[in-house]
Design brief:
Shape: elongated
Largest sheet: 5 strands, parallel
CATH superfamily of the largest domain: NAD(P)-binding Rossmann-like Domain
Number of strands: 7
Low-confidence stretches: 162-171, 175-192
Oligomer: single chain
CATH architecture of the largest domain: 3-Layer(aba) Sandwich
Helix content: 25-40%
Order of helices and strands: HHEHEEHEHEEE
Mean pLDDT: 77
CATH topology of the largest domain: Rossmann fold
Strand content: 15-25%
Strand order of the largest sheet: 3-2-1-4-5
Structural class: alpha/beta
Length: 192
C-alpha cells in the first residue's frame, strides 16, 4: 500500500497523472501484489521440495552450544528454503554450563572440527561463542584455513556488558551499536 501511495503522490506532484488511465493504474495496483505473492510461494515450494536437487543442501555445524546457537538452529530448521542442515554442535565446556536441550547434539570439541569438516563435507560453520580475549576462536578458525568452509560469527548479545547495548533487527539484519557516547576510551573486552 505504501508503494501505491508513493506512486500516486509522485504522479500527482509531477503532474503526470493525467497521462495515465486510472483503470490501468488500479488494475496494476491490485494484480501486481497478487502475482508477487503467488510467485514467491511457487519459488519457495520448488526450492523446498525434497526430491529436487538434494545435493543443493548445505551441511552446517554450530561451534558453541549457547542460547544464540540454539535459536539459530531453530531458525534454520524453520526456514527450509535456506537449504541448510545442521549436523550438530562443537563445544568444549562442561555439561553443567550448557543448555540441557542441546547436550545430545554435541559432536565433539572445537579441536575435532577440522577432521569432522573434511570427513563429513561440512560447508558452513556458525560460531556462537562469546567474544573474549581467549585465543580458542582464532585457533579454531586458523585450523580451518585449508578447507573451503564458510565461517559465520553470530553475535552473543549476553556478553556485551562492556558497551551500551543498542541493537535493532531490521529485515533479518542485526544492527548493533557498541559505543559509549560519554567516553572516548576504547571499550575493553571482558575476560571469560
Amino acid at each position: 500500500m505504501l508503494v501505491i501511495a508513493f506512486i500516486w503522490a509522485l504522479l500527482h506532484l509531477s503532474k503526470l497523472g493525467e497521462y495515465f488511465r486510472v483503470q490501468v493504474l488500479a488494475s496494476w495496483a491490485l494484480i501486481t501484489p497478487l502475482f508477487l505473492w503467488v510467485g514467491e510461494n511457487v519459488a519457495r515450494a520448488l526450492l523446498t521440495r525434497s526430491d529436487v536437487n538434494a545435493a543443493g543442501f548445505r551441511k552446517a555445524v554450530i561451534i558453541g552450544l549457547t542460547e544464540p546457537g540454539l535459536r539459530l538452529e531453530q531458525q534454520l530448521i524453520r526456514d527450509p528454503s535456506l537449504r541448510i542442515q545442521v549436523a550438530g554442535y562443537f563445544e568444549d565446556r562442561q555439561a553443567n554450563r550448557l543448555p540441557a536441550e542441546g547436550l545430545n547434539r554435541i559432536l565433539g570439541r572445537p579441536s575435532d572440527l577440522p577432521a569432522f569438516v573434511r570427513e563429513h563435507k561440512i560447508n558452513v560453520a556458525y560460531v556462537t561463542l562469546p567474544m573474549t580475549r581467549h585465543s580458542r576462536v582464532l585457533e579454531m578458525v586458523e585450523s580451518l584455513r585449508d578447507s573451503t568452509i564458510s565461517v559465520y560469527f553470530v553475535p552473543n548479545m549476553f556478553v556485551l556488558t562492556w558497551c551500551r547495548r543498542a541493537s535493532t533487527c531490521w529485515v533479518g539484519f542485526l544492527w548493533l551499536r557498541c559505543a559509549n557516547p560519554r567516553s572516548t576510551a576504547p571499550a575493553e573486552l571482558p575476560n571469560d
